[in-house]
Amino acid sequence: MTATIPRLDRTTITSLAAPHGWTGTTRAVFAARYLHTLVGIRRLAALLAERASATLAESGFPASLEAIGAAPADVQKRVLNHPSAAFWVDVAWNLVGRRAPERFPEMHLLPHLREFARFALSALLLQGKGQLTAEVRTDAAGRISLPGSGLALEGAAPWARTSLTVDDGRLTWSGRQLRVPRLVGGTELNWLDRDLRLGGRARFTYAELDPGQAQRWQHELNSHLDLVGAVCAPLAEEIAGGLGVIVPVLSPDPSRVHVSGSFHEAPGLVALALGEPMATAEALVHEYGHQKLNAVLPLDPLIVDDTGEAAYYSPWREDPRPLSGLLHAVYSFVSVADFYRAVLDTPDAGGLDPRSVVNRAYQVVRQVRDGLGELRAAASLTPLGAAFVDAVTDRIEACGGSLPPPPLEDRRRIDAERTVHRARWDERHRAPDVTTAPTTAPTTAPTPAPVARLARNDALTRALTHATLRALGLPEDWAPGAIIRRWYPADALLEAVRDLHQLRGGKTAGVLPDTVPGEGLIPDLAAAHLAYVSEDYRTAGMRYAACVNHDPRSPYFWQCYAFALRHLGRRDEALYILTHTEALMARRSPLSVDQDVRTTPEDLAWGLRLPEAMESAPVPVRPVNLSATEAVERELRASRYWDLAEATRGGAQLPTLIAVASGLKPAMDLWVPRDGWPALRGLTETLGLVHHVDACFDRLSPQIAQMPPGRLTTTRAAFVPDLRKGAEAHVFLARDQAALDHVVGSGWYPLIVNGRVVDKHRADHDTFGEALGYPACCQDFFRKRNNWNDDNTYYAALRNTRDRPSPLCNPHLRHTLYGLVPYMPCSYACPATIEFAGRLHEVIRSELPLYAAAIEEAMSKPLLCVSELRMYGFEGEAVHHDDGMVTITYSGAKSLYPVEDTDPLWALLRSGDRCTVDGNIIHVGRAGAYIAGYEARGDRHGPECPFVVSFT
Q: How many CB atoms lie within 10 A of CB 256?
């Protein structure tokens, strides 16, 4: 398994801006893409041999790797150059990045390694010799695909574990063997391989084709490829070489909306719908442009330090795009414009309407010019990137100069649509009108530009910087380029400070060199972080202010400063900063912790507008939806806690409130809708609690859908400055002011502000649990294991459980009326949690015996947990264990925390009366008949690890 990496220079990168056929350069960049897959497999094998040797041996992966390694090079390439192989490698490394070898080896790593056998079996089939027997899983349709061989096997049960044998070219299989059809040039038309659907990462409606439909798809796609070949033979030659698979998808409205997509994790794969001939032909050309650029980017990023932040205008989209996405669009649509120019130069090409082609070409040329202008203004390009963009610019100008103009009326219409599109985008993605811009600085946000300058470029500054980095164990050439001018920075300096603080047990005096504010950005930032984790928030604020003065255009410094102010009790000023960051980034006067950033009466008057400060108006009050028996409800209505049910319209977290009111817990937080606000005020007065509202949350904001995957957790909301209809106030409750100050300081939740997610200071994760009164063992566990992107905290608690799970350690009801445990315990048998929940239960029993009995019953019921978002309880349930699998029979299913707009697993469970957890597969049936299976994935945000836990 070998290949060579091509070397790019200005000449070769310029040549790649236009199609020249399957030439040496084009072929080489695609070969490098294949090499990336080969290297990924070899590195994976070496890493797992060191870190997970037992799992590796059990999976059979070494035998599969040996079998495919013995195959001829052309056979290896046919199999491992298949998009499914690249996607398999991407998933494997995704799991490694999430530490699956340690965190969930049996749940996700082991089954994924077993699936590599499909590639080895394909290789043995193609070469006609060798023997291998392996266990793999079928897909949702009971199929097994053998990538590269052109075969798919059908006839087994859905998601079944199946043994396959290939012996000297003969496959042992009792079901049907389906042939994957190919188009002209050899591209597969493949709807049979589940990996080509990318594990749910792409939200398409995938087509299942019968033989007649498959023939129609082949005919139409071949006609489009023939058209490309007729008007631009070099482009057709490149498509044949670089496009491995077309996966058929369906458009919601083929006459108006064309659907297609390419994916860097599956090179050679294009998802494509059939539609109007002109749109489908354009999509083929367009998607090949993505394929080619995806092959180039691993060799040179073209853009310097692209953060991936979706913040830029694209003439083709309604949503903001990252710079890489804009580069992709510009490049692929240059090919489209050139294709249409070639069509117009070829009489009667494909039967396309000339006027439609002229109009579309005119529109695309102007879109590309607009996109190039946006790209050049916002992106810092590498030397090769600059040469590439110059070549793309030359290409579009040459194309535009040779195209005939549309009729005047069409040209005016297209130009007007272009103007309206930009105006509508600016209006939609301008900062929402939820704040009052400060009058002390211009409101125009500065153009981002990566810089990393020290405050003083002299020997003292350099010496202090190097000494600071050495003290933290960081290399002396470490630079803050990944932090400055960034909204979502990964801060290695802060992580080093947190690690050092923990290692030294909080005794960090004298660790850093003695400096004064302003002597260097890195010394100031390190000193600020160290003061923050040491809970010296005054010093932290002073040093963060110095960081802002070094570079006021870095939003991260402003946000760190704001969080220091929250701890100092300057909450209104902190909220102002967090909601006006972009405007404040244009500030020219120095920042001082001794002065308020709000300098005008208008600035100082800005703040949350809560009902008591608003004009009185009748508020429609929804009925309380209490999930309780009549007897329990009567008991609760007569209690001093009933106002919580009125405030939340359902009584969620009532046990937690009782814990705070009784002194078992110092503080809590909850969300209160507008119609529950009067009851909340009454509740605090009745129980003698203090409270603070730090923000209002809009969970229906359209900004939520615009966030990149993985930026939000269970809290999915945008900031609004008032408790309007549909919004909720985030309220902290505490027994006394000191406890309230402590919990508010650490208690910010991820919240979308003006189109960007504002996260809490990372060090506040270390103190929030203490402020809420959680056991030290559970705080430590939470800090280590509650990483939403990489981990599954509930599954980690299960693996950490040594004794039988206790009902008093059931955290899954914490968002309901019946949860005694308001946090994630370190195990389902945590002694500290059992003690806390037991004491709380006794307090409730002494005052509300019927409610206490209902809690005990609810917490003892078994449940199915998949992730923090997907937890399910059952009615009429019974649990059965059989050969490592767990089955629940039930009469009803409910989601314990319905946060998502759509939950396919909940819908599936509601349709059945039986579910079986078989590794990462959940089978659902009803009345003895199989309905469907659900595949829990570990390679995406919020890894899913299904398990049944019984609290008996």
A: 10
| Maximum alpha-carbon separation in the chain | 90
User: What pLDDT band is residue 4 in, cutting at 50, 70 and 90?
Assistant: low
* Contact criterion met (CB below 8 Å) for 495 and 429: no
Q: Per-residue pLDDT for 503 more than 80?
A: yes
> Cα–Cα distance between 496 and 631 in angstroms, integer?
55
pLDDT category, 531, cuts 50, 70, 90? Answer: very high
In sequence order, what are the beta bridge partners of 757?
Answer: 752
Task: Identify the three-state secondary structure at position 873.
Answer: strand
CA distance 936 to 932: 13
Question: What is the four-CA torsion angle of 488, 456, 542, 780, rounded to 10 degrees?
Answer: 50
- Angle formed by the axes of helices 323-345 and 211-231, nearest 10°: 80
Could you tell me which residues are beta bridge partners of residue 553?
A: none
Tell me: pLDDT of 171 over 80: yes
Looking at the chain, the whole-number percentage of residues with pLDDT higher than 70 is 95
Q: What is the pLDDT of residue 6?
A: 63
Going by the DSSP 8-state scheme, the letter that residue 210 receives in this structure is: -
**β pairing state of 727-734 and 667-673:** antiparallel
Query: Is pLDDT at 277 greater than 50 in this prediction?
Result: yes
**615-661 per-position pLDDT tens digit:** 444 455 556 777 889 999 999 999 999 999 999 988 899 999 999 99
pLDDT tops 80 at residue 707: no
- Give the C-alpha separation, 601 to 385, whole Å: 48
Q: Who contacts 85 (Cβ-Cβ below 8 Å, separation ≥6)?
A: 37, 79, 119, 147, 148
Q: What gap in Å lies between CA 859 and CA 72, rounded to an integer?
A: 59
Q: Which residue intervals of 568-721 are DSSP H helices?
A: 571-579, 581-584, 601-605, 630-637, 642-648, 654-661, 677-687
- Signed CA dihedral, 500, 501, 506, 510: sign only: positive
Q: Which of 47, 53, 54 lies closest to 97 in space, CA to CA? A: 47
Q: Residue 451: pLDDT above 50?
A: no
Three-class secondary structure assignment of 456-486: CCCHHHHHHHHHHHHHCCCCCCCCHHHCCCC
Among candidate residues 772, 780, 741, 767, the one with its CA nearest the CA of residue 664:
772
CA distance linking residue 71 with residue 120, whole number of Å = 9
| pLDDT over 80 at 706, yes or no | no
C-alpha span between 441 and 209 (Å, rounded): 60
d(CA 750, CA 807) in angstroms, rounded, equals 31
pLDDT of 446 reads: 38
Strand partners, 356: none
3-state secondary structure of 387: helix
Q: Which residues contact 768 (CB under 8 A, 6 or more apart)?
A: 743, 746, 747, 760
On whether the pTM is more than 0.85, the answer is yes
DSSP string, 332-377: HHHHHHHHHHHHHHSTTGGG--HHHHHHHHHHHHHHHHHHHHHHHH
| Cα 727-733-736 angle, rounded to 5 deg | 155
In terms of Cα–Cα distance, which of 380, 384, 389 is closest to 449?
380
Read off the tokens for 935: 């595949």
Distance CA 180, CA 188 (A): 7
Q: What is the 3-state secondary structure (H, E, C) of 69-137?
A: HCCCHHHHHHHHCCHHHHHHHHHHHHHHHCCHHHHCHHHHHHHHHHCCHHHHHHHHHHHCCCEEEEEEE
Distance CA 365, CA 396 (A): 7
Q: What is the pLDDT of residue 347?
A: 81
